[in-house]
Design brief:
By secondary structure, the chain is of the alpha+beta class. Helix content is 40%, strand content 19%. β3 and β4 form a beta hairpin.
């Protein structure tokens, strides 16, 4: 039996499909299905749905489900305003880049590892049946929040030590599962050895904590920095972070 495919979310650059586990063989979205979808499609979570939104970014929104062993397919959509040849090249490169980052990250920290596919514009990955931190972090006791944030800092340190820049470090892209933090959505990520890029990564997270978890954000970011201090280049990154923040304050004067 062919697995059922369902469009569950759509962002500016990609659509997310849920493939239910009806067969060992997975079915991929073909070109006719892709072209049949219109720009007006939007995800609406049904009442009592088993689906739970776990992340969003510029590239796409991502969801998880409580069903056993489903597959999530991130499918980069065509852009009619671009020349087809250029559009195909851009989508292929971005898909390949994100796949490589996810694969590399999954070997370093907790992150969904893509599964092989012959499709050029798709990423297949397992679900993560956990709690999105943007929605649940504030519900925990402060000590647990601090412990979680220290883990986040440690994971970022591991990524940065391998020159992986996430590019969208917010609690919307972090899932808590069995006391482990999973990082998702590397659509804006890239490889860089520059301390400046690593500092900007931390700066984005600091801004996200201040905006979303404002009650305890100062204590939480301190825990992130404690965890991040395990990075071999943490001292230089913290110095660059101060410079980044000074530039930001100067611009707003």
């Amino acid at each position: 039996m062919i697995p059922k495919q369902k469009l569950i979310a759509q962002g500016a650059e990609a659509k997310i499909y849920l493939v239910s586990p009806r067969s060992k063989k997975s079915s991929l979205i073909n070109n006719s299905q892709r072209s049949a979808s219109t720009k007006s499609e939007r995800f609406h979570e049904p009442t009592k749905s088993p689906l739970m939104k776990v992340g969003s970014g510029v590239g796409a929104k991502q969801l998880i489900t409580s069903h056993s062993e489903p597959i999530i397919i991130k499918d980069r959509i065509q852009k009619s305003y671009r020349l087809q040849e250029l559009d195909n090249r851009i989508r292929k490169l971005r898909t390949r880049s994100e796949t490589k980052l996810l694969t590399k990250a999954s070997q370093i920290i907790n992150s969904p590892k893509p599964t092989p596919t012959s499709e050029l514009y798709q990423i297949k990955m397992p679900f993560i049946n956990g709690k999105r931190l943007s929605e649940h972090l504030d519900n925990f006791a402060l000590e647990k929040q601090k412990k979680i944030c220290k883990q986040i800092g440690e994971s970022i340190a591991k990524l940065h030590d391998k020159d992986i820049i996430h590019g969208d470090l917010t609690t919307s892209n972090m899932i808590l599962l069995e006391n482990k933090i999973f990082f998702i959505d590397f659509g804006l990520g890239f490889i860089s050895h520059k301390f400046e890029d690593k500092a900007v990564d931390l700066h984005l997270l600091k801004q996200a904590l201040e905006a979303k978890h404002f009650k305890n954000w100062e204590e939480l970011i301190k825990e992130v920095f404690k965890g991040y201090s395990k990075s071999t280049g943490s001292k230089i990154v913290f110095e660059r972070l101060q410079a980044v923040e000074k530039r930001g304050r100067y611009k707003h004067k």
